[in-house]
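user:
I keep going back and forth on a fold encoding question. Separate attempts, laid side by side, tell us more than any discussion would. Would you put together a sequence-and-structure record for a protein of your own picking? Write it directly below this note and I will take it from there.

assistant:
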Amino acid sequence: MKKEINYKKTMANTLSALNLFKDEIKSATLIHIPHSGTHIPTFESMNEEIAKKEIELLTDWATEEIFDIKECAQLVVPFSRVFCDVERLPDEQEMMYKKGRGFYYTHADDGTRLRSDNPALKQRILNEYYQPHHDELLKICQDKIDKHGHCYIIDAHSFSEEALQTEENRHAERPDICIGTDDFHTPDFWINELKNHFENNGLTVAINQPYNGTIVPLPMYKKEDKLYSIMIEVNKRCYMQNGKVLPEKVKYLNTLMNAIYEF
């Protein structure tokens, strides 16, 4: 049975998602940006040429600018997902692990070998990059809950117009905006109002297509009902052309993201 989250006690007697984002709520909001980085801390055991091609393919370009929402904190991963993908689950829980695409990528999207199996390096990356990020994410969320009573996460991404070869459902709808949700941590009215917001501004929207879910610190997952999370993914066709970022399109998308808080 789906858990009903009661926002009435915290949101001035309204069930409007636009009213969710009041000024006093902004300080309780965290914009999580995991895939905008391009830095590879070490090319040890890695094919540098293939890695650079993967960076071009997989980086969520300009998401720091698109999701630069006034008065909302950002947690930005400073290294490339090609080096360490902090949004993957631990190996035994991550379905992409079997494709060589867990937190420690061993294969490129086309299946070619990207990095050799190096247990010592993998453990070092886990200890020095993956786990510290998740510790920081948990700390920020807990601090916001302690200070404000709640924490709101916007998990910010972009995605390619064409499906990646490693995607589970390569024929899924590829809208302008994909909204990812979790049954426990994402209330329906939040989903509906954000969907309406983007559609009213001329963008196509799909829920959990082609990607589903949203980031939640694992120790809080389905346990902390003061933690709310939603994923917003922007199709790169909305702001890129021929592999280049179009600044005017980025600015427009940023205006739309900030408009979430206007009512």
In short: DSSP finds seven helices and eight strands in the chain.
